[in-house]
Amino acid sequence: MHNVAVIGCGYWGPNLIRNFQNIKECCVKTVCDKNLERLKYIKSIHNDIEVCIDYDEVLRDDTIGSIIIATPVRFHYQMGIKALNYGKNVFIEKPLATSVLECQDLIEKAENENLVLVVGHTFIYSQAVIKIKEIISSGELGDIQYIGARRLNLGLFQTDINVAWDLAPHDISIILYTLGKMPISVNCQGKAHIHPKIEDVTNMTLNYENGGFACIQSSWLDPNKTREMTFVGTKKMLVFNDLEPLEKIKIYDKRVECPNYYDSYEEFHYSYHYGDMYSPYLNQTEPLRIEAQKFVECVQYRKESESSGRDGLNVVRVLEAASKSLKEGGGRVLI
Questions:
Q1: Quick one: pLDDT at residue 39?
Q2: Is 116 in contact with 89 (CB distance < 8 Å)?
Q3: Which of 59, 181, 272, 307 suits 313 as a labelling partner, its CA being 20 to 30 A distant?
Q4: Segment 115-145, tens digit of pLDDT
Q5: SS3 call for 80
């Protein structure tokens, strides 16, 4: 039985506790948080779990093999590196840390100590995103021309990071996972409407060397919750709507074709192809459950994770470049 401790039981922590607790080979032994009311709430649901407010006390417990960190982002690095120093495997919610240097330090420490370091990029474990990667890899969509992502809602406002660092990691991780490659540069613009120094609306563009690009719109200031991505290929188009209960993926046999040969402008005509639409079947499995199971397997069998520390580093590389672009008025920043 592999004992884990969950650090932070605010918004996301209870979901992690529930999923790790439901894994047969795993036991959530301890939950740690500074908020006594939250600990009391967790104890009322899971009376067999120990609770405490002292992180060092958790780290000194030799029966705990892994630390699950679900705290505000500003604590990710210092808590993660301390856990690794105590010989614990570490799972950190996204983003992995607040800078590329912090991520590299975490990765180096984990590798030197032969410990598992995983970041919580939950969406790459969803059946929908796994299917999208399969469809793109098969060539069914053709060459990807662009990706459009919209992740919008009213709140939850953060105090230590802007909306790009809060919401965009989901879309960035999906894009990097499905395309299997990094962009070469980033542009980002945004505005702060509620807090003067924290952008609550951003538009980010990831530029690829083949001319393709991805647009990511993130907002805490929209009336309706939106979770949608569009993948436009030279052959077909795909829409991923995560809020759809069943048909999360829809593939459209639509494209625009240009004539191969023409002698004059009058002979030039675009051809619009309209075909069928279909929605592939997806297993209804909670991504967080799969993510938690995979982490436990990585610890037990020293397997490579689909959301390793290096995957977390790549997402932070994009975010760090986006932050620089944001400060410079939206200019292009090389990665």
A1: 97
A2: yes
A3: 59
A4: 999 999 999 999 999 999 999 999 999 999 9
A5: helix
C-alpha–C-alpha distance, residues 168 and 94, integer Å: 10
pTM for the full predicted model:
0.94
CA 264 vs. chain centroid, Å, equals 49
Q: What share of the chain is helix, strand, coil (3-state, %, to 5)?
A: 35, 30, 35
- Alpha-carbon distances of 45 from 41, 49, 64, 137, rounded to whole Å: 7, 9, 21, 43
What tokens does 280 get? Answer: 């592939």
Distance between CA atoms of residues 220 and 218, nearest Å: 7
Query: Strand 2-7's sheet: what is its strand order?
Result: 50-52, 26-32, 2-7, 66-69, 89-93, 117-120
Give the type of residue at 334: L
Q: Where are the domains of the chain?
A: 2-123+287-307, 127-285+317-334
For 77-98, b where at least 16 C-beta lie within 10 A, e where not — what string? bebbbebbebebbbbbbbbbbb
| Below-50 pLDDT ranges, the chain | none
CA distance 316 to 221: 23
Whole-number pLDDT of residue 148: 98
For residue 257, the model assigns a pLDDT of 67
Domain spanning 2-123+287-307: which CATH class is it, in words?
alpha beta
